[in-house]
Each structure stands twice: as structure tokens, then as C-alpha cells.
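Aim 2, interim progress. The first record below pairs a target sequence with its C-alpha cells.
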Amino acid sequence: MIALASIVVITPPVVLSAQPARGNSSPATDPLLPRLEAEITRLAAIAGGKVGVAAVHLETGREVVLNRGEPFPMASTYKVPIAVQLLTRVDSGALRLDSMVTLRPSDLHPGSGTLTQLFDDPGVSLSVRNLLELMLLISDNSATDIMLRTAGGSVPVNARMRALEVSGVSVDRPTINLIADAVGVKNLPPENEITPRAFGALVRGVSEDAQKAAAEAFYRDRRDTSTPEGMARLLQTIWRGKALSKTNTDLLLDIMRRCETGANRIKGLLPPDVVVRHKTGTLGIGVANDVGIVELPNNGGHIALAIFVKESTRPTEQQERAIAQIARATYDYFLFNPK
């Protein structure tokens, strides 16, 4: 993660609504949901920025949404819609999970993961499944940009979201361009000249004032953003098997269950045996996200949960604390109010 100077933020008023999930013909009513609303509102202040939340109890259709239509930078959570389009191509027969992809030097981009550190010599090939897992399990940015290209690019990813009737989710840039815009790097060299070392030198050359201006512009940019409601709808669509075949639905959910990042976010305050299928996202300009599906014990059902933080002036640890507290409050509510 690239640390940036703090940004002065004026937090807008919170808009929070509780209402039945769309698409359910007879969703359960829940007169006690305002208690959860009030608690999420209180806990959101911990993050020190603007918070978006969508929580949908999948079995009953009850939901609570904070800042429903507000766009939030997805950061690495945008790897979920990329994975959906990639696996859609597998379902159609246009792509195989065991197809091998040869890595080029220009494929090694800055960001969390192992490809840049371990495979910096030419001649390495990995399967599509290997790269998909690296993208989701450890949030490898090099693998992500390869998978976005393999999925056909941002246009078919967004077309797939529209086909699934998921609105408010937009994937627009490779991670290398997204990070460059977030930190104020201008005039990236040609792709075959972008090495992690060269990119690092470009980042160090950005002044503090330019970093602040870039962050402010980044927050006004609707590219690579999602509304809380949109991401929750995508998770719901995946869970119900409407996005992919059963085989690839199971694969995607299994990889998300094994996600190795974000131990202090949605999972942070939950009992250790609770199954969470999720994906995190972070940008060092005050962005911390976690989105996923929480499995309640004792046949309590499942919660599709999207929690976004942006424009935070507080350390990442406090942003994560807010996510963990909101996740625990939501978990407790639906666990003890199952119907």
C-alpha cells in the first residue's frame, strides 16, 4: 500500500434506510431494524470518513443500507466483478481454467502479492486458475491486470454487470492506472516500460500538494466505484447461482472463503469458526473496504455484506475497526433475530 498525506475531509450527513431487498415478492418485515440502523450510524463515526454499508439477510430479504447510492472507490474489491466475467467466459467455453498464460516483464505491476517479487525473470507461465486465485486470495495486482485482460477488459465486465441487472458497479481501469491516478502519477510510460522500480520512482517524484490534489480528484471520479447496494446485489446474485454455473459459483465462493487478507475487517470481531467468503480493498488515501457473505451458525442463514470507507483522515487500523464493529453488530442482529 502506498501511503499518502492526510486529506482534510468534511463528512456529509449520513443517509440510512432499512427496507426489503428488491426482487423478493414477500420479504419479511422487521420492526426492530431501526435498532440496527442506529448502531451502524453510531459505529460509522469510528472510521473518520464516509462509510457505506449494505447488509442483506439472504434468506428473509431484510436489509439495511447506509448511503445506498453513494459511489465508493472499490479498490481491490473490484476483483469480484472481474472474476465473475472471467468465469462467465469459462462457462461459455471461450476460456479454460487450465489454459496457461505466459507472463511478460510488462505484466509485473506494483501492489500486494508475489508475482512481482518471485517471477521477475521471463519464461514463467501460470494457469488461469492460478492467476484467479492469486488475484483473490492475496490481492495480487499483477495477476489482476492479467485477468482483466483475459476477461476481455472493462467493457465486457460492465456489460456482464448490466446483464445480471447489477447497477452501480463499474470496472474501468487496470490496477496500475488506478493506483497511478490515486497517488498523482502523471504520464505513465508505455506498458512495456512500467516496472515496479520505475513506478516507485515516479511516485516518489509526486509532491505533497500534487498528492492531495490527486486524492481529491480521485474521489470525484466515478470510475472503478460501487454503491453499497450495487455490491450487495452482486454478492446476492453470485450466492443465488444466477451469475455463474454451479461449478464456477462454488469455485468462486471457495476462493473467497480462503481469502488471506483483511483479518481485522469483517472477520475481525466475529467468532473464529464463522465462515466468511469475502474480498478486501485498500488505498492509502483513506480507503478501506471489505465485501462478502457471512454464514450465520445454527442455520441462521447468510448475510451479504458490503462495507466501504472513503475519505478517512484516520489510520487504516481505525478504518478497519469501524468495519469490524459494523460487521459484528450486523452479525449479532441477524443471529438473534432470525425471522
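The second target in this work package is listed in the same format:
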Amino acid sequence: MHLLYLDDSGSASNVAEDYLVLGGVSVFEAQTSWITQELDKLATTINPSDPQSVEFHASKIFSRKVQPWNGMSQREARGVIKAVLNILKDSYETARAFACAVHKASFPGRDPIELAFEDLCSRFDLYLDRLRGQGERQRGILILDESAHETTLQRMARQFRTLGTRWGIIHNLAETPLFVDSCVSRSLQLADHVAYAVFRRYNASDTSYFDIIASKFDSDKGIIHGLVHKQTVNPECMCPACISRRISQTRIQEDQIHMHLTKPGGE
């Protein structure tokens, strides 16, 4: 079973923020124990007497307003965020990052969480389809942090398996999404950091966290599938997601031209 842990960064209602990001990490079920062990080791360096009390929540670490982060310097706190992301960077090759950054003003009247959730469900399903094409028969489950969106996202996931997304029916999810308190899941805490790294990349033009995990986003044949930038304001955006999308569209057009020229009667 492949588990996609997802969390959000940013707020749909905060007018001071341009973006909302839903993101996280897909791991094979047996790999979650390694992530837990590595984050537990890091927690021990922060609170040796009670490492389980340490919850890695990136925005709280960054702001340094609550314990234990308020006792750290800015450099120390940001070093913790980078240490968490390096665990993903150094993890199994099969661990893949996924994220959708939604420019809120580009979609007035739309819930950015719902937009991102639909997109990532489709991308995760296509990833599992690709694995099935390689002979793997595993299915997937989505695991999200508990939130006010729980009922809506569960309903959407059920509809995706019957009515489909705008890109088609979801075939490879074994169950409706599960919602778990992030304080008891190190993998969700890692997902939180992935979402925050992408949020900082798009909302604050800060690539210092994103660059650590850039190579972990799901990709195939040089095309990034695990990262999407949903926006309508800059058709020439030079972020990795938008560049990859344009390359993919060019390849599709070239393939169509090639098919036309090689079929009987083509010119």
C-alpha cells in the first residue's frame, strides 16, 4: 500500500497571503517506520527528556512563538526545518513529494483546498497507474491532518471514485481519506514541512526550503508530475512546475505532428 500524507500551508481566508498549498509525501507503508525513527532522533536532540512532546510544525518553528522553538535563535529554528526536509531528501528513492500551490486570486469564488485536493488525487492516481504499468499492484490511501475540511474532502474522494475528477475516474484509491491528528504521526509532520516549503517558495519567493526537496517531486522522463502551480496571472512563469508543464505540452504537440506525418496520407 502506498500512503500519501497531505497537509496544507497558508489560509484560504487570509487576504495577506496570495497562496494556499496542499502538499505532502507518498511512501510505501513499510517506510513509515523509518521516517518515524529519523524524526524521533531529531526530536531527541531538541528535548532529550521527552522527545514525543516535540511536534514538527513548520510555521510554528519558523515563527518561534511557542515552546520549544521560542528558546531558539532564528538560525537554529530554520535549521530544524531544513533538518526535517533533509530526512525526505535522504529517504528511499520511492518516497515522492506531491504539492499543489493555488494562487487564490486566480480562482475567485473557488475553495483553494478543494481545487488542490482534486488535482493531487488525480496526480496520485496517475502515479499509481504508472507503477501498475511497471508490474506493481499496490493501491493507495490518502492520510490528512484533521481539519474542518474533513467531511467535504471525504465526499469529494467518494465522488472521484464514481463520477471522476475533471481528468477522469480515480481507480487506485483503496479507501476514502483518513484524517489523523498530526501530533501522533511523524509522517504527517513531514508532509506539513513539504507543504510549508512549497508555500514559502510561492508566497514569499523563498527557495531555501524548497530547494532541499526539489528532486523528490514525482517525475517521469524529465517531466515533473508531483508539483503543480495553479495560476492564471503569468503564462510565462519560470517555476519548475510551470516550465515542466510547458515542456510536456510541447512534447504532446510534437508527438501529434509525428503521428500525423507518419500515418498513410500524412504530409
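The beta strands are 2-9, 19-28, 96-103, 140-145, 178-180, 219-220, 223-224, 227-230. This observation will shape the mutagenesis plan for the next reporting period.
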